[in-house]
Automatic annotation (TrEMBL):
Organism this protein belongs to: Paenibacillus polysaccharolyticus
Annotated TM spans: 7-29, 41-61, 73-94, 100-127, 148-165, 171-188, 217-239, 251-273, 285-304, 310-332, 344-367, 373-393
Keyword hit for Disulfide bond: no
Position of the signal peptide: none
Gene Ontology CC: plasma membrane
InterPro entries for this protein: MFS (IPR011701), MFS_dom (IPR020846), MFS_Efflux_Transporters (IPR050189), MFS_trans_sf (IPR036259), Sugar_transporter_CS (IPR005829), Tet-R_TetA/multi-R_MdtG-like (IPR001958)
Name of the protein in question: MFS transporter, ACDE family, multidrug resistance protein
Region spans: Disordered: 396-459
Length: 459
């Protein structure tokens, strides 16, 4: 793993930058609304269009990475994301009103296209780079930690940049993407493909077979990932609105408060990635414990309408989500064959983006209702994720996550292999026995005792 530390540094820069590219805008949306003189709904579309485009294109990016290689998809995606940030920044700089708004929205659309082929492809690439499952788990923990670190940094950095110029977060995106692009080009060495890449029809058939055999636990992990993101961004939206409307906290100060639970998420992701190793049973139970922790935290928050209780307990619950995320990444990555890894992990990333997209609007609809109802629904969502982890994800003793049908197939394959191996040993034994008998037979036939020859008597 030490010989690939610079590869990991370069890859870890991608989720940080992709997260910053979206989340930096959250604390400055009211300022953008005032500057462009548009409605709050139109401003919210700057976040929504980014996520929706990524959701739609992530599966396609996964297939292309399986077909043409991970790096061949990541590099153009970073270029597209940089172009999108540049378009948005230049439009905000030189234009105004509706013209500026629609041009910025187009730039955000391009950013979403780039995001679809960047961070989601990092996860299968890490799985390809390492053969040892323990190294894969630790590396994915680092990648997930960098993702959460981007979430911690984004509200602070976005608010700080906007103090200088309100559109400077847009202009920062191409600079950040360029840094990541240089790191990936020069530091990341992808393993050579030994097998021929699948055609589209073969790809579709293989994905269908994977989902047919392993669909039970894969669908569960997809849903759990979406639930985790739904809870994080839903509560963050609640905190952002409450801190500004009730406590008049704005700018960097509000960003620092929002960073507290995200810092807990980041630290828990890092520690969980180092601890789980290649033990998939441990991944399951740690993921379940994390979701149980966030469920209990949200349930207790619902009983106390106090901002200090909300921040404190959500910090604890964020640690639970942070512990679960590396487990989900590793179970997905190690649970499917390399040929389908890019697309399966891309589907998982799509579900996470769906959670990101649903969290703020759902909470915005519930925020005017009773406090207990809002957090009761969030706690129920966490409980669903915990039950899915407990009931649907069933690692075998050797560590492979599987459903009941998958267990049968694995057992059958194992039995077939043992039968084949036993048959081969039996055949080898018979061959050796036959050769020995032939040798003995040849020896028996070839051995003739020489007749006793007597010397002639001289008399």
């Amino acid at each position: 793993m030490s010989d690939k530390k610079w590869d990991l540094v370069a890859l870890a820069s991608i989720p940080v930058i992709m997260t910053l590219g979206n989340s930096m805008l959250i604390p400055i949306l009211p300022q953008i609304e005032r500057e462009l003189k548009v409605s709050s709904f139109k401003v919210s579309m700057l976040i929504t269009v980014y996520a929706v485009v990524a959701i739609l294109l992530i599966p396609l990016a996964g297939y292309l990475s399986d077909r043409f290689g991970r790096k061949a998809v990541i590099i153009p995606s970073l270029v597209i994301a940089a172009a999108g940030g540049a378009v948005a920044g230049i439009a905000a700089w030189f234009m105004s009103g509706n013209i500026a708004y629609w041009t910025i929205l187009g730039g955000r659309f391009l950013q979403g296209v780039g995001a679809a082929g960047a961070f989601p492809i990092v996860i299968p690439l890490v799985g390809d780079m390492f053969k040892n499952e323990d190294e894969v788990s630790k590396s994915l923990g680092i990648i997930e930690t960098s993702n959460t670190f981007g979430k911690v940094l984004s509200p602070i950095l976005g608010a700080a940049l906007a103090v200088w110029l309100w559109y400077s977060p847009f202009l920062a995106i191409p600079v950040l993407c360029l840094i990541s692009l240089v790191l990936v080009v020069f530091l990341v060495k992808t393993p050579k493909r030994k097998e021929k890449p699948p055609t589209f029809s073969e790809f579709v058939a293989s994905i269908r077979d994977v989902l047919k055999v392993k669909g039970r636990w894969l669908y569960a992990l997809f849903a759990i990932g979406g639930i985790c993101m739904f809870l994080i961004f839903g509560v963050l939206y609640y905190l952002s609105e409450t801190l500004e409307s009730e406590f008049a906290l704005k700018g960097v100060v509000k960003g620092l408060v929002l960073a507290i639970p995200l810092a807990s998420l980041c630290l828990a992701s890092f520690l969980a990635g180092k601890w789980i190793g290649k033990n998939k049973s441990r991944m399951k139970w740690l993921g379940f414990a994390g979701l149980a922790l966030v469920t209990v935290s949200l349930g207790v928050i619902g009983m106390f309408d106090n901002i200090y209780v909300v921040v404190g307990l959500f910090t604890l619950g964020s640690a639970g989500i942070g512990a679960a995320l590396p487990c989900l990444d590793t179970l997905i990555t190690e649970g499917v064959d390399k040929k389908q890894r890019g697309t399966i992990t891309a589907l998982f990333s799509s579900m996470r983006f769906i959670g990101v997209s649903l969290g703020p609007p759902v909470v915005s609809l519930l925020i005017g209702s009773h406090h207990f109802l809002l957090f009761g629904i969030l706690a129920a969502s966490g409980a669903v994720g915990g039950l899915l982890t407990l009931l649907a994800v069933k690692p075998e003793k050797k560590g492979e996550p599987t459903s009941g049908s998958d267990e049968k197939q694995d057992d059958q394959e194992k039995q077939d292999e043992e039968d084949k191996h036993g048959y081969k040993e039996k055949q080898d034994g018979q061959d050796k026995l036959g050769k020995r008998r032939v040798q003995e037979s040849e020896t028996d036939q070839g051995y003739r005792p020489s007749p006793l020859r007597r010397k002639k008597s001289p008399y």
